Amino acid sequence: GLDTFTRIEALDVIGPQTLQNRLAIKSLEIEVEVALGLRTSDEAFQVGPKDQDGSDNPSVSETLVLKASVRNLDAAVALFIAIDQGKFGDLQLGSLFHASHIPPCILSALHGVEL
Questions:
Q1: Helix (H, G, I), strand (E, B) or coil at 79
Q2: Ramachandran class of 26: left when φ > 0, alpha when ψ lies in -120 to 50, beta otherwise
Q3: What span, in angstroms and rounded, lies between the C-alpha atoms of 73 and 58?
Q4: What is the pLDDT of residues 36-81, one digit of tens each?
């Protein structure tokens, strides 16, 4: 949950065109469950009676659970942003009031972005 975050520093200015985001997490756990269904397509591999759906090619179902965990994660990402001030100044304020227009409007003023 949110109580595992020990540090959050967002949009920290570290240079003229550089912003840094940093976060620290006490523990991060990821669990992914995958269901697999396998069926042969060749009669040479048929090993048993017909499958439940009546086909001659039997199927096998398996469920895989993948788990990963990380302790004391501390990550910092610096973002270099070059903005064309002329284009940024030419943005019409009214277009920013529509949520779907915000990203294209701001992106049109960006000259370059690097991680």
A1: strand
A2: alpha
A3: 45
A4: 887 766 655 555 555 555 555 567 888 999 999 999 999 999 988 8
Phi, psi (rounded to 5 degrees) for 47 = -120, -10
Q: What share of the chain is helix, strand, coil (3-state, %, to 5)?
A: 25, 55, 20
Q: Is the pTM of this model over 0.70?
A: no
Instruction: Please report, for residues 35, 87, 90, 101, the alpha-carbon distance to residue 109 in angstroms, rounded to integers and kept in the order given.
Output: 45, 5, 9, 13
Strand partners, 113: 81
Answer whether 36's CB lies under 8 Å from 17's CB: no
